[in-house]
Design brief:
Elements lengths: L5 H10 L3 E5 L3 H14 L3 E5 L1 H7 L1 H14 L4 E8 L2 H9 L4 E4 L6 H17 L3 E6 L3 E4 L2 E3 L9 H11 L3 E4 L4 E2 L10 H10 L4 E3 L7 H9 L2 E6 L1 H17 L6 H23 L6
Parallel strand pairs: 1-2, 1-11, 2-3, 3-4, 4-5, 5-8, 6-9, 8-10, 10-11
Antiparallel strand pairs: 6-7
Helix pairs in contact: 2-11, 5-6, 6-7, 7-8, 10-11
The structure holds 1,3-dihydroxyacetonephosphate (13P), zinc ion and sodium ion.
Pfam family, one: F_bP_aldolase
GO molecular function, one term: zinc ion binding
InterPro entries: Aldolase_TIM, Class_II_FBP_aldolase, FBA_II
Amino acid sequence: NLNSTKEMLIKAQEQGYAVPAFNIHNLETIQVVLQAASDLKSPVILAATPSTVKYADENYLLAIIEKANEINTIPLTFHLDHHENAEDIKRIITLGCKSVMIDASKYEFKENVKIVKDIVNFAHKYGASVEAELGKLGGIEDDLVVDEKKSFLTNPNEALEFVKLTGVDSLAVSIGTAHGLYKSEPKLDFERLDKIRALVDIPLVLHGASGVPYDSVQNAINKGICKVNIATELKMPFSSAIKEYFSKNPDASDPRQYLVPAKKAMYDVVVEKIKMCKSENKA
Ligand code: 13P
Ligand code: ZN
Ligand code: NA
């Protein structure tokens, strides 16, 4: 049986660190994240976007992660990341998933509230926790492409209102990060984060952490971020290592060989990101 992310994030909030949420895609990436988290004794969130669920199958993902939860001593959860389809979310909750993000950030405030509230009501009956987003990140995540001009930062007063109206468990805020990498170094709006934190008491989530300097992420954590999402910076070393392996071994065909350096390269980044989140030894 899986846990929600509620207690995990509240503990992080109280103790001033963030739980890293790593986007996984298959058995290998799940193994890498869990190995690194176990080695560093860090709580960890395994996040799956809609295209990952489609690619890997929700039943297989749940089976693998439920088994992992049974045999691992670190706190771990399976989290649906950036899901927009209410029916999909509800179905996967009934199958045993205890942590979901309903992303209705593309809608105006009232519609966002309405969509999120419906998921919160459903999820809480199953003991599942819900993350929502207010404001909108730019960049590319999955099939989701948001033009920089269409992105906007979270309004602190609206955030307070949003949390009250929806009863959501954690809030993803838009404070200057974007999904994917950056053309130039991102500048985070820490004043805005301070204002949001002063008004909103639930755990705050930072999306788009790939490409954000270590110090900026840690500053955001010091100012109240307690979940940090990382996707792109894991995919890159994994695929680069495979490319390198094949360039040196063009006749290779055994995944048990060519995936080994990929897993190692990804492992090193997961370790670095756990340290960035200050979640080492918090399991
Ligand atoms: P990055 O791809 O920038 O790491 O963003 C990850 C994310 O926000 C997943 O929800
Ligand atoms: Zn995201
Ligand atoms: Na990013």
